Amino acid sequence: MSPAEVHAGGEIAPVFAALGDPTRLELVARLADRQAHSITSLGDGLPLSRQAVRKHLRVLEDAGVIVGERSGREHHFRVRQDSLAPAQRYLERVAAQWEDAALRLKAFIENEPRGTDK
């Protein structure tokens, strides 16, 4: 990966940081239906206060993963449809590089001359 590509990945670093927490991953999974959900519905069944859920949602919102909208007294959140695509492309590129490296290693090992018995 070139230095320019590494620096371009800086724009997705906040996405990876936000998704690096199990609670936030769960919240994103709950939002995967692409419907808007309230803080209360997102927190149902989680051992967290409403304020703690809101803090996690704020991290996801700051990273651009979700968007919040006010509806009366409630805030509703949904996943930004385009937010995870750059991270996915980055992971696919890294996976392809690892696959290429593994294939080169395999070819090297298979073509390595064997020692002779003495």
Notes on the structure:
α2 (13-19) runs antiparallel to α5 and α3 crosses α5. The chain has a single domain (3-111), classed as Orthogonal Bundle (Arc Repressor Mutant, subunit A), CATH 1.10.10. The protein is 57% helix and 12% strand. The termini are far apart. It has a 3-stranded antiparallel beta sheet with strand order 1-3-2. The model is unreliable at 1-7 (pLDDT under 50). The longest helix has 27 residues, at 85-111. It is mostly helical. It is elongated and about 75 Å long.
Q: Which keywords apply here?
A:
118 residues, mainly alpha, 3-stranded antiparallel β-sheet, Arc Repressor Mutant, subunit A, single chain
Overall mean pLDDT stands at 86
Compute the CA-based radius of gyration: 21 Å
Assembly of the depicted chains: single chain
Number of helices: 6
Shape estimate: elongated
Give the strand content: 5-15%
Strand order of the largest sheet: 1-3-2
Please trace the helix and strand order, writing H or E for each element. Answer: HHHEHHEEH
Tell me the number of structural domains: 1
Biggest pleated-sheet summary: 3 strands, antiparallel
Low-pLDDT sequence parts: 1-7
Helix content: 55-70%
CATH topology, by name, is Arc Repressor Mutant, subunit A
Please report the distance between the alpha carbons of the first and last residues: 44 Å
Instruction: Please tell me the CATH architecture by its name.
Output: Orthogonal Bundle
- The top level CATH class name: Mainly Alpha
CATH homologous superfamily identity = Winged helix-like DNA-binding domain superfamily/Winged helix DNA-binding domain
Number of DSSP-assigned strands: 3
Helix/strand-derived category reads mainly alpha
